[in-house]
Write a structure and sequence with these properties.
TIM Barrel; two-stranded antiparallel ribbon
Length: about 325
């Protein structure tokens, strides 16, 4: 699997696919999680994404399970050499029923907890998991920069931020001489939700055209989550959510099926290849519950879409 340099000047190389570990320790048991992780690394994958809050919302979940399983796997593996570990803060349950936010004490406490659960002394990439407009940006950004200068974090990212907020916080950090957000993580796939619809998943923010333009023009690195729409591209038992039901969806699905048939590959592989080879190039985060599902995704890294087929996909709307 090829690697690409993460923006931000930290010298970090990330793999074409990022393994999403959200379900590890809750919906995916530890034995299966270890098998998936082993296969991902065997295939040349290096980049693993988690968060302090995964997965408090599932039955019996409290948050931190994913990081704990990853920590046990890293211990069994004998360390984190060759791996890029990313985690997040800001979306865990807060004291008053909302999200925990990005106040300095939250960032410091939650970072310490993530490092402890993972059994490492630093993260390669640390995200602001969602916006916190109740905490002054100066406080949040100064605390993230503090984590970088202390060696606990190598570089920073922002997830689920509006494009204008990302631009604003980057400008503030640069003016202060602090580490700016240079990685972006947003919901994105080939199919697009109905315009002006509110996503029902709390905290999810879909990548807008403005955000993609910002990523492209400023040379940022974009990671995309929910890339395969929870199996809805291929599984009859996983119908597309209602907010994807609009005329453009069927035209795009038809184009996807035609391209997959012509190339003799799966629709999921076409989606992942379309993301990897697009402009801007995107690092898809794939969350799987079996090695077989991972193997299907891994095959997409060797799939180069011919120009005419990519154009057909791009122009279906």
């Amino acid at each position: 699997m090829r690697q690409r340099e993460l923006s931000g000047g930290a010298g970090i190389q990330v793999s074409q696919l990022c393994l999403g570990a959200m379900a590890f320790g809750t919906e995916v048991d530890e034995e299966t999680s270890f098998a998936i992780l082993d296969r991902f690394v065997e295939a040349g994958g290096t980049t693993i994404d988690t968060a302090n809050c995964y997965s408090f919302w599932v039955p019996n979940g409290v948050g931190g399970e994913s990081e704990t399983v990853l920590g046990r796997w890293l211990s069994r593996r004998g360390g984190r050499d060759g791996l890029v570990l990313a985690s997040k803060v800001g979306s865990g349950p807060g004291a008053h029923g909302g999200a925990e936010g990005l106040a300095p004490e939250v960032i410091r406490t939650q970072l310490a907890g993530s490092l402890q659960r993972l059994g490492v002394d630093h993260l390669d990439l640390y995200y602001s998991h969602r916006e916190d407009r109740d905490t002054p940006d100066e406080q949040t950004l100064a605390t993230f920069h503090e984590a970088v200068t202390e060696g606990k974090v190598r570089t920073l990212g922002a997830s689920n931020h509006a494009a204008w907020r990302l631009a604003e916080t980057r400008a503030l950090a640069e003016a202060k001489g602090w580490t700016p957000y240079t990685a972006v993580q947003q919901r994105y796939s080939y199919l697009l939700p109905r315009p002006a619809t509110a996503l029902p998943e709390g905290g999810h923010v879909h990548a807008s055209d403005e955000l993609l333009d910002l990523v492209r023009s400023r040379g940022l690195t974009m990671f995309a989550y929910s890339t395969l729409l929870w199996g809805s591209y291929t599984r009859p038992d996983k119908p597309l959510p209602e907010h994807y039901q609009h005329p453009g969806t069927e035209r795009r699905l038809q184009a996807l099926r035609e391209v997959a048939d012509e190339l003799g590959v799966t629709v999921n592989q076409v989606v992942l290849s379309w993301l990897i080879g697009g402009e801007p190039a995107i690092v898809p985060i794939v969350g799987v519950s079996s090695v077989a599902q991972l193997d299907e995704a891994l095959a997409a890294v060797d799939l180069d879409l011919p120009t005419e087929l990519r154009k057909r996909l791009d122009e279906a709307c």
